[in-house]
C-alpha cells in the first residue's frame, strides 16, 4: 500500500492562504476516496474534505467556501488549498486514503 507524506504547512497570518500537498509513494489512480482531516489542539481529529476519483468533492461546514480539495493522479498528489485562514484553523492536517494516514503537517494561523 502507498505511504503518504504531507507538506505545505507553516505559520500564516489570519486571512492568509496555504496550499497543503500530500504525496503518495505510489499511484493514486485506483484510490477512489482521498480525504483531509485535521486535529485542532484539545479536540479530536475531524474530517475536513473528501475527493473521489470521479472528482466529487465534499467539505466540512467549518471550511466550506474557504478551501478546495483537488488531486493530480499523474503526480500522485492530493492538495488542499485553504484561504481566509482563521486562528481556529490551527492544527495538524493529515491526508488519508481510508487505510493509510500521513504523518501530518502543522498549520499555525496567527491573529
Identify the notable features of this structure and list them briefly.
111 residues, mainly beta, six-stranded mixed beta sheet, globular
Q: Which SSEs are present, and which pair or pack?
A:
Blueprint: E1 4-7, E2 10-13, E3 18-24, E4 33-39, E5 46-52, E6 57-59, E7 67-72, E8 77-82, E9 91-96, E10 105-110
Parallel strand pairs: 2-10
Antiparallel strand pairs: 1-3, 3-8, 4-5, 4-9, 5-6, 7-8, 9-10
Tell me what the structure shows.
The protein has strands spanning 4-7, 10-13, 18-24, 33-39, 46-52, 57-59, 67-72, 77-82, 91-96, 105-110. With 111 residues, the chain is mainly β. Strands 2-10-9-4-5-6 form a 6-stranded mixed beta sheet, with no helix packed on it. It has a 4-stranded antiparallel beta sheet with strand order 1-3-8-7, with no helix packed on it. The radius of gyration is 13 Å and the shape is globular. The model has no long low-confidence stretch (mean pLDDT 95).
Poorly predicted segments? none
Shape: globular
Amount of beta strand: over 45%
Mean pLDDT: 95
Largest sheet: 6 strands, mixed
- Strand numbers in spatial order across the main sheet: 2-10-9-4-5-6
Order of helices and strands: EEEEEEEEEE
Number of helices: 0
Protein structure class:
mainly beta
Instruction: Please count the beta strands (DSSP E, at least 2 residues each).
Output: 10
